[in-house]
Amino acid sequence: MTTFELFFDLVYVFAFTQVSRLMAETHSAIGILQALIILSLMWWTWVGYSWISNQASADQPFLRTVMTLAMIAVFIAALTIPEAYEDLEGGWNGPIVFATAYAAVRIIHVTLYLVVAREDSGVRRQLLIFLIALIPAVTLIFVGALLGGQAQLWLWLAGMIYDLGATWVGSALGRGWRLPSAEHWAERHGLVVILALGESIVAIGVGVAREPVDPFIMLGAAASVVLSVLLWWSYFARLAAAGEHALTARDEYARARLGADAYSYAHFVIIAGIIVTALGIEDAMKHVGDAEPFGWFGATALGAGIAMFAGGTVVFALLVGVRRPIMRAVEAVVLLAALPVLAVVPPLAALVIAVTLTGAIALTESALHRRAEAMRRS
């Protein structure tokens, strides 16, 4: 992976931060849905450029120049995330600016891909099929931005679902995508998981940035960091390498199909789970010294975020051939079942309970894995 790709991905770190900010400011279920729609739109733009950079080196001057233009558009879209649904007073219309920047990112992507694939008829044909998904989806984003209100929410949701679904069907019909490097693909997605986990670390500090340090903050920070490390372990201890090996073992079409299903699609659930968990951490740290109940909003963000992450790793594990990821499914069920408890205990206790449950499941999974490996060798 080139340093320019890493630099390109940094604009998405800012986008992740803006999505978390939107969730925190709205502090409602609708706000979380709005933010997840924005996250999915931004994720789909990142996915598009990751396919290009796997097929052609981003160190080429032409690719760097065009991807720089895309970075500018991504950054403008990220800047407008806080007013993507409600235009702030003064300046240009926020939803329209977001829709325009988003459309620019998608148009630049398709144009660049056509240039990169100018000698590959299979990819060019696939890109023409891809336009069937792109044009209606972008149109729905623009119409939603123009109408605003509840119509915007549902039109953007419809645009997102149509884009994902039509792209999946079109990819199965066209069979034209290329994924030359399994190592690059796995490494690139592993890096974006790290970047998202960085948001959970930032959330720890955001929650108490202006508070004097005391024992509650120190305990909450320690628990939050341990939780972030557990999420890191859950992905990188077994799954990251298994994904790369599965990609390497497949032929051209099967590799591209697995790359789309296990990474372009399943990884969105993993990233979304991390971002929602970060929201729960931030909410807990803001009130870490309080004796009052954590409440349903923070508890749901914390517990459901971990459960979403775990569910994403289950899907990823099954797709790449990891046998019986039972403990990941158990983790999702246990954290969801624990939501009523997390809601009625103080925020610090909720953090400790979430860390304890996640850690116990990780230890159990590790022990079962070692036992299975010992039995296999014997």
Automatic annotation (TrEMBL):
Top-level division of the source organism's lineage: Bacteria
Key words, A-Z: Membrane, Transmembrane, Transmembrane helix
Entry-linked InterPro entries: Low_temperature_requirement_A
Chain segments annotated as transmembrane: 29-49, 61-81, 96-115, 127-147, 153-177, 189-210, 216-241, 262-281, 293-319
Pfam families: LtrA
Protein name: Low temperature requirement protein A
Species of provenance: Microbacterium lacus
Lineage start: Bacteria, Bacillati, Actinomycetota, Actinomycetes, Micrococcales
